User: Which sequence fits this backbone?
């Protein structure tokens, strides 16, 4: 008779630690599994690379008129793209995306524009997140009249279409890139304030918070170390999507002449200043338009991916 | 009065939908001939691409200011006809140099220094601007007034482009490293300025490159810009222009730099105003020449502005429109045009500001007024010769101080009342007499009157 001995279950510490994965690892895994978010990340990566290396890869200064280039180039304003590799005669100066109405190299302006757009997106959203988080956390944690005042102000801000409100703010404080950023930052505050307040409300009465309170933690510690980290997930999603709309709003303001002032190479402003040449020099509206679209698309794809990846209700999909 | 004036012209206002269109209908009791359509519609769009598109699609019959890059498109289209408008205009860069307005600090304003203004005048390559950013038919301005106007360009030619001399002047004035100021303009296309944004940015680049002067561009709404310019409230430099209303120096130099001119260029210069005053009082071109020569030379010295270009522009009509023309004065009359249907649609650059044109200076308003209200004398169709309109004839005494007009009989207003001498006196006194209860106009500036006659009756003490 043969007896089969079943080996006793051993607790292997090493295996266990391999199996336990952090929330961030799950998120990353889910994110990379989605094709659309990968596409978004690739576009974004290229944009960031362009933005960082713009001064080295741009053939000209973004504000330099070809009329000031020495030796003088024989070139017309709003000339079509000239790429030597694609058969443009070698005796003509190369302009990958042609020249604009002021005989500036459109390609160089596009590269610097990427830098500007990313700065716009990140700075406005950071501003809005910081202010929105503080306001939302205070309102959600303390409740009562503080909550009432803060949230009613947020409601008022939310009542206006964001672009309209931004235009109104810029009209009051005057046009200019910084003012436009400030306006867009202000109008995006309510979204973050509401998100944070909602999260704070949902975790405020949880056991671990009560435990922390029972242990004598002060308000600051409870709010910023116990509660807020748990409100981070929706904030990240909202922020990523918010960058897209901030870039779009900034481009719209610049298009209307309320944002970046000439000669700043901002995509929206470039689009706006050449809008009348849409039939005679289509490349001058095509490239900035395409660039805005791609940037916004990239942030939206990434934001969507992040939302799905961070959503615990979709856990079964992992 | 501002919205629905009652005049004697071939058309009367039927409806003005602000922001959309101005609808005029034929005046059945018009004393003259009107072969135009029953309904005349004024539309507007600031975008040259949109104007052209509407013309190509047939929704409008004529457009103003074809985009500089679109001339060839229109000429190549057999359904459209291009009409070049002679360059009877001026684009200039104005300085508000020594303003008396509150809020200005003249001690800190580099532009209050004549040498700085001269330096900027020499430091801008005007040929480069006209060659690159103006359509064919434009020319670099040698003087403020176009040469086709009598005594227009007597006196020395404008400064040649000379960076070294400009830098030397700027150093002498105490600004060797340049300074920072603003460039104001309105983003509207006019015959004298077909592509304002591009010209503004080129100026910005040139002054930075040549003189290290930093220009911050400030684009203003058209009406607000004109009002601020007239009131002398524009800081720094501004780009503006002028299209002739009538071919005379009083309409150019007199209006801008005479004793009665607005505060646009700050304080007046005695030598300019006195020369202009003497010139305006004489009738013969030869007698007036020395005064205008002196005025032109004084303007060259003081540089209240830099004349840049006389801009060529063009109108486009459907080829089927009969009687289409381009007026050098910009006052196209639609009662002589016919498209064979009962509605004629005209699309210009901008909406009229108001229809009380004694108190408007913008050509887009004046053109609409030309269809509705009339004056004693007018201009031949498509030309600059003076013809009688509401006056059949006039006599002048030897001193040019007494003018007698014989009014046209049988003229009735749109509301049916008969036109007589009282109407003329009332119209004039409203403009002249500051105490007249109707002397409010739109902005109340009545800058044509003060530009022409120097002062108002009962003007409030300043």
Assistant:
């Amino acid at each position: 008779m043969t007896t089969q001995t079943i080996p006793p279950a051993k607790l292997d510490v090493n295996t266990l630690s391999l199996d336990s994965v952090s929330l961030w690892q799950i998120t990353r895994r889910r994110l990379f599994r989605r094709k659309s978010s990968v596409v978004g990340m690739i576009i974004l990566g290229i944009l960031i690379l362009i933005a960082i290396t713009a001064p080295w890869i741009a053939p000209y200064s973004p504000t330099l008129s070809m009329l000031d280039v020495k030796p003088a180039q024989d070139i017309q304003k709003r000339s079509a793209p000239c790429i030597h590799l694609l058969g443009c005669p070698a005796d003509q100066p190369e302009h990958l995306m042609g020249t604009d109405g002021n005989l500036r190299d459109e390609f160089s302006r596009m590269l610097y524009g990427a830098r500007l757009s990313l700065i716009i997106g990140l700075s406005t959203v950071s501003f809005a997140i910081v202010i929105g988080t503080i306001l939302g956390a205070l309102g959600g944690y303390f409740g009562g009249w503080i909550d009432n005042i803060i949230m009613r102000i947020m409601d008022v801000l939310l009542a206006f279409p964001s672009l309209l409100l931004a235009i109104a703010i810029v009209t009051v404080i005057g046009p200019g890139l910084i003012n436009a950023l400030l306006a867009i930052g202000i109008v995006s505050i309510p979204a973050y304030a509401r998100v944070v307040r909602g999260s704070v409300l949902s975790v405020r009465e949880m056991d671990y918070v009560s435990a922390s309170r029972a242990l004598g933690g002060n308000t600051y510690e409870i709010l910023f170390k116990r509660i807020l980290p748990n409100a981070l997930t929706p904030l990240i999603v909202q922020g990523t999507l918010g960058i897209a709309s901030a870039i779009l709003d900034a481009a719209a303001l610049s298009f209307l002449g309320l944002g970046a002032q000439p000669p700043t190479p901002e995509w929206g402003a470039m689009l706006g200043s050449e809008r009348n040449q849409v039939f005679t020099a289509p490349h001058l509206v095509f490239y900035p338009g395409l660039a805005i679209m791609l940037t916004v698309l990239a942030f939206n794809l990434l934001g969507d991916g992040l939302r799905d990846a961070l959503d615990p209700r979709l856990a079964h999909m992992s | 009065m501002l919205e629905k004036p009652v005049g004697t012209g071939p058309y009367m206002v039927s409806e003005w939908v602000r922001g959309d269109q101005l609808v005029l209908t034929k005046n059945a009791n018009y004393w003259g001939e009107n072969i135009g359509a029953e309904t005349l519609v004024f539309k507007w769009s600031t975008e040259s691409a949109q104007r052209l598109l509407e013309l190509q699609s047939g929704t409008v019959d004529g457009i103003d200011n074809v985009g500089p890059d679109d001339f060839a498109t229109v000429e190549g289209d057999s359904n459209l006809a291009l009409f070049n408008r002679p360059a009877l205009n001026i684009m200039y860069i104005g300085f508000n140099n020594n303003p008396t307005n509150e809020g200005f600090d003249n001690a800190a304003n580099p532009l209050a220094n004549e040498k700085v203004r001269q330096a900027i005048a020499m430091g801008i390559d005007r040929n480069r601007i006209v060659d690159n950013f103006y359509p064919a038919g434009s020319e670099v301005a040698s003087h403020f007034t176009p040469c086709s106007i009598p005594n227009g360009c007597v006196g020395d030619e404008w400064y040649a482009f000379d960076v070294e001399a400009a830098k030397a002047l700027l150093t002498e004035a105490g600004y060797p490293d340049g300074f920072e100021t603003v460039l104001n303009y309105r983003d509207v296309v006019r015959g004298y300025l077909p592509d304002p944004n591009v010209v503004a940015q080129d100026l910005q680049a040139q002054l930075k490159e040549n003189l290290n002067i930093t220009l911050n561009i400030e684009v203003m709404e058209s009406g607000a810009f004109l009002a601020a310019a007239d009131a002398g409230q524009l800081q720094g430099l501004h780009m503006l222009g002028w299209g002739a209303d009538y071919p005379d120096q009083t309409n150019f130099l007199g209006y801008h730099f005479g004793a009665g001119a607005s505060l646009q260029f700050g304080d007046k210069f005695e030598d300019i105003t006195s020369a202009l005053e003497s010139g305006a009082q004489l009738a013969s071109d030869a007698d007036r020449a020395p005064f205008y020569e002196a005025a032109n030379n004084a303007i060259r010295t003081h540089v209240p502005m830099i004349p840049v270009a006389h801009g060529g522009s063009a109108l486009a009509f459907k080829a089927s429109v009969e009687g289409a023309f381009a007026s050098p004065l910009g006052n196209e009359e639609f009662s002589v045009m016919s498209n064979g249907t009962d509605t004629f649609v005209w699309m210009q650059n901008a909406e009229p500001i108001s229809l009380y044109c004694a108190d408007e200076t913008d050509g887009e308003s004046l053109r609409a007024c030309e269809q509705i209200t009339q004056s004693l004398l007018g201009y031949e169709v498509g030309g600059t010769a003076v013809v009688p309109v509401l006056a059949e004839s006039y006599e002048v005494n030897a001193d040019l101080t007494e003018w007698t007009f014989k009014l046209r009989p049988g003229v009735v207003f749109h509301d049916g009342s008969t036109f007589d001498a009282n109407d003329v006196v009332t119209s004039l006194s409203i403009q002249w007499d500051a105490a007249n209860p109707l002397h409010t106009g739109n902005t109340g500036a009545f800058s044509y009157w003060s530009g022409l006659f120097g002062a108002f009756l009962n003007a409030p003490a300043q």
Observations:
- Chain A is about 65% helix and 0% strand.
- The radius of gyration of chain A is 26 Å.
- Residues 66 and 72 of chain A are 7 Å apart (CA to CA).
